[in-house]
């Protein structure tokens, strides 16, 4: 039985600039229009299959479970990923180069685990290729996402925004959280799309970037010190890490510990990328649902809503928004 995650093929290819179908037989499904969707609509832009589960899986499952419409846009198929299933080694880019197609099914299973029914590949499945890590020759592949024309790629995302009219968008910061070129490009594309949508009157009211508070990293250094799978084993100074946000700059803490099992199931769906003995599962076993279920965000665009604690962290990405009223004149007029 195939999972129920929906796919949309996107618009036709535009010409490449200077910067820089799913395997199942079912027909493409498109959202009919904003008037048929729930009042709260969340759009997430991720670089590769599995990024959504690792970085925002609990948040996605939380909002899907509470009735919000969650749209996931994935920018590449993850063709350059490592393969942790020996019998599938022949799918690698250097062999049959079929890993991307296989990961479509993994992502579909992850979406089903998270309760996400609206998933798109930016510009259609396979439009943009995984660029590999920074500095590798794969960055120069003709279809590498790192080489994508910014306005063309952003245009594909604008079409999705025009259809879904999300009030909240989530993506990465300027460094792509940890410096991967596709994460950086996903950030650039998402932020450019917000600019273009704003010019047409339907931009999301709030844009968040995934984040990790310094206090959580400091606690991790202590808690994981005696773990055999300590991801911080070689770290002596937090400034050595490519990520980490001062607590005062964090805007939202989403406590979705009740969804930690869904997040773990989604991660396990990405078996080629996350082996059963991954430190992620080991540490989750040691430190429980909070490790899997709590996710943090920096507010890049929009006004912060009501929060709590010493820094006023929001507990809802829609905090402060009136999601029952039309976002703008274009929406009110029923334009799409």
From TrEMBL:
The UniProt GO MF terms for this protein read: N-acetylglucosaminylinositol deacetylase activity; zinc ion binding
Q: Which reaction does it catalyse?
A: 1D-myo-inositol 2-acetamido-2-deoxy-alpha-D-glucopyranoside + H2O = 1D-myo-inositol 2-amino-2-deoxy-alpha-D-glucopyranoside + acetate
Query: What residues bind Zn(2+), as annotated?
Result: 48, 51, 183
| UniProt-listed Pfam families | PIG-L
Q: Which UniProt keywords apply?
A: Hydrolase, Metal-binding, Zinc
What is written in the cofactor note of this entry? Binds 1 zinc ion per subunit.
* Name of the protein this chain belongs to: 1D-myo-inositol 2-acetamido-2-deoxy-alpha-D-glucopyranoside deacetylase
What lineage is this protein's organism placed in? Bacteria, Bacillati, Actinomycetota, Actinomycetes, Micromonosporales
């Amino acid at each position: 039985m195939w999972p129920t995650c929906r796919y949309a093929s996107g618009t036709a290819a535009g010409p490449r600039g200077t910067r820089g179908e799913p395997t199942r037989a079912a027909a493409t499904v498109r959202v009919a229009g904003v008037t048929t969707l729930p009042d709260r609509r969340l759009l997430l832009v991720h670089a590769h299959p599995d990024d959504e589960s690792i970085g925002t899986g609990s948040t996605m499952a939380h909002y899907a479970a509470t009735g919000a419409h969650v749209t996931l846009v994935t920018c590449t198929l993850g063709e350059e990923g490592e393969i942790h299933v020996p019998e599938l080694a022949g799918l690698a880019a250097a062999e049959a180069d079929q890993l991307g197609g296989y990961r479509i099914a993994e992502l579909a299973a992850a979406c089903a685990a998270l309760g996400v029914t609206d998933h798109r590949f930016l510009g259609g499945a396979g439009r943009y290729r995984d660029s590999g890590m920074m500095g590798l020759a794969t960055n120069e592949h003709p279809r590498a996402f790192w080489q994508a024309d910014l306005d063309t790629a952003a245009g594909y995302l604008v079409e999705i925004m025009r259809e879904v009219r999300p009030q909240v968008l989530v993506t990465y910061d300027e460094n792509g959280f940890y410096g991967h070129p596709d994460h950086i490009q996903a950030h650039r594309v998402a932020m450019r799309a917000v600019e273009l949508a704003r010019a047409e009157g339907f931009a999301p009211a709030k844009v968040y970037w995934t984040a990790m508070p310094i206090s959580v990293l400091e606690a991790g250094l202590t808690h994981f010190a005696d773990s055999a799978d300590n991801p911080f084993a070689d770290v002596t100074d937090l400034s050595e890490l490519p990520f980490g946000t001062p607590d005062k700059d964090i805007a939202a803490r989403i406590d979705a510990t009740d969804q930690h099992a869904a997040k773990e199931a989604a991660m396990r769906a990405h078996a080629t990328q996350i082996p059963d003995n991954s430190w992620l599962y080991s540490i989750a076993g040691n430190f429980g649902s909070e490790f899997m279920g709590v996710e943090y965000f920096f507010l890049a665009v929009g006004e912060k809503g009501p929060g709590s604690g010493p820094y006023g962290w929001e507990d809802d990405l829609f905090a402060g928004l009136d999601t029952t009223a039309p976002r703008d004149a274009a929406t009110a007029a029923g334009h799409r």
